[in-house]
């Protein structure tokens, strides 16, 4: 591939490339990347940035990791892809086995997906077909909580926040779901059952139509970066059991150690009926996700009208992605990642604390390897994104939030570059 001069690259980009959450033509600044290594992103022109985003929370071991690269090379020499219908292969089987070992024990079946949004679609579809197979087709709606985010595909959008979420423009064409109030008790707060009254009332009144409750446990990600009580998750599990409703947990953002536990539901010491995972699973190398469930659910599908689960992505269980994901999990297992997350958490708490003194700042919160500074007013991306780069870091603020979810391998001095930039940006 012949490299284009930077000016030409940006001109073609502006003319033809449609970026995420952007318009055409895109008026926001775009920064061309030449390469990435470890926690550093090198831009065309030579400027190097400390990555505070883990490429949307995926590259937990940084960029260009030699073990991930080698796993990909080894797998390419065998095959980069083969259809999964009627066939299987070593990377998928071994990865499924490893995921079953890592996730809460009742989860025994693994359905591989292309992306996090598809994982949510699969989970919702699985819940609907489960009840259909049991002769209850009326149970086809979902209960969730306001402030959540579950992806950009249609059913996933239907359980995102309907008012303040990024998908409210589609509200009239999306399936109508049930929305409980946002949990208010923070992660470390004293639990009071009043916080889940809205959730319980909706279940009590509508459980006959609800296939499953779905939400992000403990951390609401792109919907607002809120950290709420694990007791909410525990009580939701109890209420779902009480009213005969499945529980789907979306751990696409929180899975694989980000909150300090391997999966965020472990803070509540419960397990879901269906679990959605993705993002960090392949270490940011390739798009890969999965939906896990229990034998209690999976065994019903052979008894239903279709006799099978009616879903099958073309690139399901891509061997290259599965092989890299296996190695990524092996890397995670090779060091004390929990101690590393605790160190990152302590540093984020200490070094983001000065932001509280700013009149621009509403709140500062940290959990695991997640640091959030919430402002009183939304950021102006056209202004703040170049300022972030000028500070020598890469962050992607949105709404009223300036936040970081750095790679786990980040060193204290590198993390200080990120926290110092956030402090300066909020003065």
UniProtKB/TrEMBL annotation:
<feature type="modified residue" description="N6-(pyridoxal phosphate)lysine">
    <location>
        <position position="279"/>
    </location>
</feature>
<dbReference type="GO" id="GO:0009102">
    <property type="term" value="P:biotin biosynthetic process"/>
</dbReference>
<dbReference type="Pfam" id="PF00202">
    <property type="entry name" value="Aminotran_3"/>
</dbReference>
<feature type="binding site">
    <location>
        <begin position="313"/>
        <end position="314"/>
    </location>
    <ligand>
        <name>pyridoxal 5'-phosphate</name>
    </ligand>
</feature>
<dbReference type="InterPro" id="IPR015424">
    <property type="entry name" value="PyrdxlP-dep_Trfase"/>
</dbReference>
<keyword id="KW-0032">Aminotransferase</keyword>
<dbReference type="InterPro" id="IPR015421">
    <property type="entry name" value="PyrdxlP-dep_Trfase_major"/>
</dbReference>
<comment type="subunit">
    <text>Homodimer.</text>
</comment>
<keyword id="KW-0808">Transferase</keyword>
<feature type="binding site">
    <location>
        <position position="396"/>
    </location>
    <ligand>
        <name>substrate</name>
    </ligand>
</feature>
<dbReference type="InterPro" id="IPR015422">
    <property type="entry name" value="PyrdxlP-dep_Trfase_small"/>
</dbReference>
<feature type="binding site">
    <location>
        <begin position="116"/>
        <end position="117"/>
    </location>
    <ligand>
        <name>pyridoxal 5'-phosphate</name>
    </ligand>
</feature>
<comment type="function">
    <text>Catalyzes the transfer of the alpha-amino group from S-adenosyl-L-methionine (SAM) to 7-keto-8-aminopelargonic acid (KAPA) to form 7,8-diaminopelargonic acid (DAPA). It is the only aminotransferase known to utilize SAM as an amino donor.</text>
</comment>
<feature type="binding site">
    <location>
        <position position="279"/>
    </location>
    <ligand>
        <name>substrate</name>
    </ligand>
</feature>
<protein>
    <recommendedName>
        <fullName>Adenosylmethionine-8-amino-7-oxononanoate aminotransferase</fullName>
        <ecNumber>2.6.1.62</ecNumber>
    </recommendedName>
</protein>
<dbReference type="GO" id="GO:0005737">
    <property type="term" value="C:cytoplasm"/>
</dbReference>
<feature type="binding site">
    <location>
        <position position="312"/>
    </location>
    <ligand>
        <name>substrate</name>
    </ligand>
</feature>
<feature type="binding site">
    <location>
        <position position="149"/>
    </location>
    <ligand>
        <name>substrate</name>
    </ligand>
</feature>
<keyword id="KW-0663">Pyridoxal phosphate</keyword>
<keyword id="KW-0963">Cytoplasm</keyword>
<comment type="pathway">
    <text>Cofactor biosynthesis; biotin biosynthesis; 7,8-diaminononanoate from 8-amino-7-oxononanoate (SAM route): step 1/1.</text>
</comment>
<dbReference type="InterPro" id="IPR005814">
    <property type="entry name" value="Aminotrans_3"/>
</dbReference>
<comment type="similarity">
    <text>Belongs to the class-III pyridoxal-phosphate-dependent aminotransferase family. BioA subfamily.</text>
</comment>
<keyword id="KW-0093">Biotin biosynthesis</keyword>
<feature type="binding site">
    <location>
        <position position="250"/>
    </location>
    <ligand>
        <name>pyridoxal 5'-phosphate</name>
    </ligand>
</feature>
<keyword id="KW-0949">S-adenosyl-L-methionine</keyword>
<dbReference type="GO" id="GO:0030170">
    <property type="term" value="F:pyridoxal phosphate binding"/>
</dbReference>
<dbReference type="InterPro" id="IPR049704">
    <property type="entry name" value="Aminotrans_3_PPA_site"/>
</dbReference>
<feature type="binding site">
    <location>
        <position position="56"/>
    </location>
    <ligand>
        <name>substrate</name>
    </ligand>
</feature>
<dbReference type="InterPro" id="IPR005815">
    <property type="entry name" value="BioA"/>
</dbReference>
<dbReference type="GO" id="GO:0004015">
    <property type="term" value="F:adenosylmethionine-8-amino-7-oxononanoate transaminase activity"/>
</dbReference>
<feature type="site" description="Participates in the substrate recognition with KAPA and in a stacking interaction with the adenine ring of SAM">
    <location>
        <position position="21"/>
    </location>
</feature>
């Amino acid at each position: 591939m012949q490299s284009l001069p930077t000016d030409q690259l940006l001109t073609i980009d502006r003319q033809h490339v449609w970026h995420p959450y952007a318009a055409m033509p895109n008026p926001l600044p775009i920064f061309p990347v030449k390469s990435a290594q470890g926690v550093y992103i090198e831009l065309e022109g030579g400027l190097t940035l400390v990555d505070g985003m883990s490429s949307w929370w995926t590259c937990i071991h940084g960029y260009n990791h030699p073990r991930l690269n080698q796993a990909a090379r080894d797998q390419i020499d065998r095959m980069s892809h083969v259809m999964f219908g009627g066939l299987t292969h070593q990377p998928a089987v071994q990865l499924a086995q490893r995921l079953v070992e890592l996730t809460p024990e009742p989860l025994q079946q693994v359905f591989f997906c292309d992306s996090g949004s598809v994982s949510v679609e699969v989970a919702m579809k699985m819940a609907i077909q489960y009840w259909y197979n049991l002769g209850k087709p009326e149970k086809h709606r979902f209960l969730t909580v306001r402030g959540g985010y579950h992806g950009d595909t249609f059913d996933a959008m239907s359980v995102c926040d309907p008012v303040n979420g990024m998908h409210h423009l589609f509200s009239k064409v999306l399936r109508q779901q049930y929305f409980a109030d946002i949990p208010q008790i923070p992660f470390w707060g004293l639990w009071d059952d009043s916080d889940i009254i809205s959730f319980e009332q909706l279940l009590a009144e509508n459980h006959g139509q609800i296939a499953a409750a779905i939400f992000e446990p403990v951390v609401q990600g792109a919907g607002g970066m809120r950290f709420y009580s694990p007791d909410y998750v525990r009580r939701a599990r109890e209420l779902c059991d009480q009213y005969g409703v499945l529980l789907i947990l979306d751990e696409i953002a929180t899975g694989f150690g980000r909150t300090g536990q391997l999966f965020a539901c472990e803070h509540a010491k419960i397990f879901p009926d269906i679990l959605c995972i993705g993002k960090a699973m392949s270490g940011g190398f390739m798009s890969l996700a999965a939906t896990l469930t229990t034998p209690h659910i999976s065994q019903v599908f052979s008894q239903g009208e279709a006799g099978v689960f009616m879903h099958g992505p073309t690139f399901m269980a891509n061997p290259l992605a599965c092989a890299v994901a296996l190695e990524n999990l092996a890397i995670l297992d090779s060091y004390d990642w929990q101690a590393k997350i605790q160190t990152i958490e302590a540093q984020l708490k200490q070094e983001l604390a000065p932001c509280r003194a700013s009149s621009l700042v509403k709140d500062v919160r940290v959990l695991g390897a997640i640091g959030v500074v919430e402002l009183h007013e939304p950021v102006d991306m056209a202004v703040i994104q170049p300022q972030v780069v000028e500070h020598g870091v890469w962050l992607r603020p949105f709404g009223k939030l300036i936040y970081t979810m750095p790679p786990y391998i980040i060193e204290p001095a590198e993390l200080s570059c990120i926290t110092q930039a956030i402090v300066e940006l909020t003065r």
